[in-house]
Amino acid sequence: MRMLLLLLALGASPAFAAPAKYTLQPDASLIEFETDFGTDKITGQMPITRADLTLDFKNVSASHVAVTLDSAHAEASFPFAAQAMKGPKVLDSVDFPQISFESTSVTAKGEGAEVKGRVTIRGVTKPMVMLAMIWRQKGHQAGDLSHLTIRLTGAVNRSDFGAVGWSDMVGDQVRLDILARIARSD
Amino acid sequence: MWRNSPTQFGLASRLLHWTMAALILALLVLGTALGWIKPNLSTLWLYGLHKTMGLTALSLAVIRLIWHRISPPPPPLGPTAHWQNRAARATHLALYLLMLAIPLSGWIASSATGLDVVIFGQITLPAITPTSEALENAGFAMHGILTKLLLALLLAHIAGAVLRGLKGDGTLRRITKGL
Predict the structure, then answer these.
(1) How far apart are CA B179 and CA B172, in angstroms?
(2) How many beta-carbon contacts under 8 Å exist across A and B?
(3) Which residue among B39, B44, B114 places its CB closest to the CB of A87?
(4) Contact list, A87 vs chain B (CB under 8 Å)
(5) B14, B102, B13: which is closest to B55 by C-alpha?
(6) 3-class SS of residue B74
(7) What fold does the segment set B11-176 form as a domain?
(8) Where are the domains of chain A?
(9) Second label for A106, Cα 20 to 30 Å away, from A7, A173, B40, B127?
(10) Cα–Cα distance between A125 and A185 in angstroms, integer?
(11) Phi–psi pair at B145, nearest 5 degrees
């Protein structure tokens, strides 16, 4: 795979001069999370419900990212962690079955992009910064931007959202790693 | 041999007494340790072990009470109205209440966390309370207070038994050898 954002710096081909809309390929997408549990880690996955992206390879700042996660079907590295995470003291996934992130600005940074936005967890919305990297998917020809892989990484402090359960045992910072495979939809 | 007589403890009562004594001692040590250790993946099983032992102790307490209905234990040695015997009966009554209340308070608190209460690594017990942080906090606080009360009563129980053993009135021998 080749880093696609080089295209952004060099100027995209005429076909991608305008913003392009992409939608999620859910079966090939995944979010992983990790937090501290004493000297160990709790890891897990959460399905991505929706990812709508508008990518402007000519003008990165015109790009927009919106991702929705299904917290009610989250899984963790051991059963108690999944129960605790989805329970009322952490994600309260019965009342808040989704986590959402929507960008407010996208700027090129290094080989990727910095995506600033707002994340909503347990009905509480807070600012969040994620780093984005984009690649062309395997099996697609160079220049074929119809299928892309976007990786978003970032972290939240769960206490900011009132998800304070088991804070004496489990770390406050939760690190997120979203790997979304997307296909052009327009 | 198994049943109690008007003057002697049968084997069933003695086995229940000493099995529960060992179990409660181990539970006190493990429960205290769990209050001190920092949980991680390598210590997580100890919480399951504590629940397994606690629910076993509760079951044995119930079995013991049923057995004492079927085969009543002998009364304390010596005059019934003597202050030592009145104190012994009160202590025994309180110990039985605590042997029921302590595991139940742990079960209530654990149920209130919303997490499964799993014993023997595979049996999930039903939740006996709804998920509630208030119930969880109250349950665990009660669990701790009652356990300290149990510890104090056990010390009194052991001291009384040792004193009677030193006097050689037969109380200690009845529950050890059944004679």
Answers:
(1) 10
(2) 37
(3) B114
(4) 113-115, 131
(5) B102
(6) coil
(7) Fumarate Reductase Cytochrome B subunit (1.20.950)
(8) 5-184
(9) A173
(10) 28
(11) -65, -45
Contact B99, B28 (CB under 8 A): no
Residues of B in contact with A43 (CB under 8 A): none
Complex ipTM? 0.72
pLDDT one-digit tens code per residue, A51-106: 899 999 888 999 999 999 999 999 999 888 999 999 999 999 999 999 999 999 99
Taking an 8 Å cut-off on Cβ atoms, the answer to whether B41 and A89 are in contact is no
pLDDT at B2: 92
**A interface residues, B as partner, C-beta within 8 Å:** 37-40, 78-80, 83-84, 87-89, 169
Distance CA(B142)–CA(B54), nearest Å, equals 15
Tell if the CB–CB gap between A78 and B133 is shorter than 8 Å: no
Between chains, do A38 and B116 touch, taking CB under 8 Å as contact?
A: no
Give the B window 38-97 contacts with A, CB below 8 Å.
Answer: 38-44
3-state class of A179 per DSSP?
Answer: strand
Instruction: Tell me the CATH number for domain A5-184.
Output: 2.40.128.110
Q: Which residues of A touch B133 (CB under 8 A)?
A: 88-89
pLDDT at residue A57 in the model = 85
- pTM of structure: 0.82
* pLDDT score recorded for residue A17: 57
